[in-house]
Amino acid sequence: MEILIEQKGDFIISTDKSKLDLSFIHGYLSKEAYWSKNIPFDVVQTAANNSLNFGLYYKNRQIGYARVITDYATIAYLGDVFIISEFRGQGLSKWMLDKLMNHPGLQGLRRWILLTRDAHMLYKKYGWTEIASPEKWMEKHDPGVYAKTQE
Question: Domain N-acetyltransferase: where (predicted)?
Answer without folding.
Answer: 12-151
